[in-house]
Amino acid sequence: MLFDVNNVYVSATNQRLDPAAVLDGWCRALDARTVGEIHLAGHAITQTAAGDELRIDDHGDHVCSEVWALYERSLARLGPRPTLLEWDTRLPAFSVLQAEGALAQSRLDAAQELRYARAV
Fold first, then answer.
1. Residue 6 has pLDDT above 90, yes or no
2. pLDDT tens for residues 42-71?
3. What pLDDT band is residue 116 in, cutting at 50, 70 and 90?
4. From start to end of the chain, where are the E strands?
């Protein structure tokens, strides 16, 4: 199973729910052993006709700070997992993609180190 952290954030925010609480609920409901991969992505923000913000999971921007925080929370709850950074629209220079990947790797490495330190 894949666990898409950006989808959790976008869906919760659009429904005016607390994304951290929604993520925690999903993590409680899932058997962590079934999560084989975590997905991260950026999203677009648009305005509805009523003037409300609406987030669209378009994989077209940097991962926002709130999603990075949820990713760290996911790693703490589920354990380190292979992570795919999705960027499918409005592609930037390759160096930008590399930098975004490095951010994910640093968080994944930190989660692995913490898990190892707790086991020792």
1. yes
2. 999 999 999 999 999 999 999 999 999 999
3. confident
4. 2-4, 37-41, 44-47, 53-56, 83-86
Burial 57-81 (b: 16+ CB within 10 A, else e): bbbbbbbbeebbbbbebbbebbebb
Q: Tell me which residue of 33, 29, 32, 27 sits closest to 70, measured CA to CA.
A: 27
What single string gives the DSSP state of each residue in 79-108? ----EEEE--SS---HHHHHHHHHHHHHHH
Instruction: Starting at the earlier edge strand, list the strands of the sheet with 2-4.
Output: 2-4, 37-41, 83-86
Task: Tell me the two tokens of residue 109.
Answer: 């490495």
- Determine how β-strand 83-86 pairs with β-strand 53-56: unpaired
